[in-house]
From TrEMBL:
GO terms for molecular function: symporter activity. The keyword Transmembrane helix applies. Residues 39-445 form the Major facilitator superfamily (MFS) profile domain. InterPro entries: MFS (IPR011701), MFS_dom (IPR020846), MFS_trans_sf (IPR036259), Sugar_transporter_CS (IPR005829). It is a multi-pass membrane protein. Belongs to the major facilitator superfamily. Metabolite:H+ Symporter (MHS) family (TC 2.A.1.6) family. This is Putative proline/betaine transporter. Keywords: Cell membrane, Membrane, Symport, Transmembrane, Transmembrane helix, Transport. PROSITE patterns: MFS (PS50850), SUGAR_TRANSPORT_1 (PS00216), SUGAR_TRANSPORT_2 (PS00217). Signal peptide: none annotated. It is found in: Cell membrane.
């Protein structure tokens, strides 16, 4: 039902008569306020926990699941099947972005954040309790796929909510840095998951593959309880509150994205794919391939943990630079660096040495951080408040499904059929297309979020 002018006026008056608590949430010129610190902590901590869960699975799929859940297959097919379950979670992420984006755009950002964290934590803990193929046969990998789909569905809503709650509270000149806290959770979660899994990989193989790999998954429930404590204290986005009070006709968000913002959606997906293909190759496929080529398993996992530090630092620096110079110049620099380093990265991984893998993944994830830093703000600034959650989530999660979900499988197939050369050529071709999409997209650093 369309609101009358009187209704709209009453809504506006009610918004203007906000309580002091509401007023304290309005963006100001500083990120150093009690409420803003709480928001940024929540954004970072929540994403770190979610990506701890998600990347723990990604790492375990490279070194554990082929032996635990696909033991009846030959090693090459077992690895392929294990990466297939990894891809299932990425496929579920756009669906999570659509569903949780709908509720985030219609009801608010905060409720989605709490729901997705709880859902992810329970699914990850359940993975740590799964029976193996040797114990129950084919039902084991089936249950693994189901829980992976739940993980993907949850993280599909988490990123958009965590990013927007920070971005929509932040002052205009610091939006890139504030939004990056949701992305900073990814390297932090990756570092934590790789470190804990590397620690337990020091166990004898019998112990590691029977129970050691389970402990990092079971620890997720403890992290979730800590994250929920912080996240429940966060207040709703003031920009959404204002929009919600004044909105009259409101379409289904995903319909509005596909009909009015489809061009920006396509461009956003293509730009986001750049850093996600780096993630799929350097953080997942390369782990399995390097170990198969003779690199030490524990050394590879330790290298991956150190690479997460490079990703973290480069993400912070790039986000800061994007607030000064714009999102597009910083992202463009990262994509060009990725193109230049594509073949060296693959050759270093192919060397089969821990040192070669370490250099490859450190530089690769550093380049990924350059793109990742401005990416959250770049995507959010493509869409209006009415569909910002849905649009930015579907763009990022759609790119995740294509760029990271299928990259390990595609890389494995290309290398098996034609070697490293073909993989490098295909990867560079994709990066070039994404660079073109970046130049076509608009720059959002100076845009007013309320008027997009």
């Amino acid at each position: 039902m369309r609101s009358t002018p009187a209704d709209a006026g009453a809504s506006t008056a009610a918004a203007a008569a906000a309580t002091p608590a509401d007023a304290s949430t309005a963006p100001n010129d500083s990120l150093n306020t009690p409420q803003m610190r709480r928001i940024l902590t929540s954004s970072f901590l929540g994403s770190a926990i979610e990506f701890y869960d998600f990347m723990l699975y990604a790492t375990a799929s490279a070194v554990v699941f082929s032996k635990v859940f696909f033991a009846d297959l030959d090693p090459a097919m077992a690895t392929f099947a294990s990466f297939g379950t990894l891809a299932a979670g990425y496929v579920a992420r756009p669906l999570g972005g659509i569903v949780f984006g709908h509720f985030g755009d219609r009801l608010g950002r905060k409720g989605v954040l709490v729901t997705t964290m709880l859902m992810m934590g329970l699914a990850t803990t359940a993975i740590g309790l799964l029976p193996t193929y040797a114990q129950v046969g084919g039902i084991a990998p089936l249950l693994l796929v189901v829980l992976r789909l739940v993980q993907g569905f949850a993280v599909g809503g988490e990123w958009g909510g965590a990013m927007l709650i920070a971005l929509e509270h932040a002052p205009g000149g610091k939006r890139g840095f504030a939004a990056s806290f949701a992305n900073l959770g990814a390297p932090a979660g990756s570092l934590l998951s790789a470190s804990i899994l590397a620690l337990f990989s020091l166990l004898p193989d019998d112990a590691f593959f029977s129970w050691g790999w389970r402990v990092p998954f079971l620890l997720s429930i403890v992290l979730v309880l800590i994250g929920m404590f912080v996240r429940l204290k966060v207040v709703e986005s003031p920009l959404f509150q204002k929009f919600n009070a004044e909105a009259e006709d409101r379409r289904v968000p995903i319909v509005e994205v596909f009909t009015k913002s489809w061009r920006n959606l396509v461009l956003g997906i293509m730009v986001a794919m750049t850093q996600l293909t780096i993630s799929g190759i350097a953080s997942v496929w390369a782990v399995s391939y390097a170990v198969a080529q003779g690199a030490d398993k524990t050394g590879v996992l330790n290298s991956k943990a150190f690479a997460a530090i490079a990703l973290f630092l480069c993400t912070i620096i790039a986000a800061r630079l994007s607030d000064r110079f714009g999102r597009k110049p910083v992202i463009a620099f990262g994509i060009i660096a990725a193109i230049a380093f594509a073949y060296p990265l693959l050759l270093l991984v192919e060397s089969g040495t821990t040192v070669g893998f370490t250099v490859a993944v450190m530089v690769g994830q550093g380049i990924q951080g350059i793109i990742l830093g401005p990416l959250a703000a770049f995507l959010a600034e493509l869409f209006p408040t009415s569909v910002r959650f849905t649009g930015s989530s579907v763009a990022f999660q759609g790119a995740s499904a294509i760029g990271a979900g299928f990259t390990p499988i595609i890389a494995s197939a290309l290398v098996a059929s034609a070697g490293i050369g073909l993989l490098g050529g295909v990867w560079i071709g994709v990066l070039v297309l994404c660079l073109v999409a970046l130049f076509i997209a608009s720059e959002g650093r100076k845009k007013d979020l309320a008027s997009i």
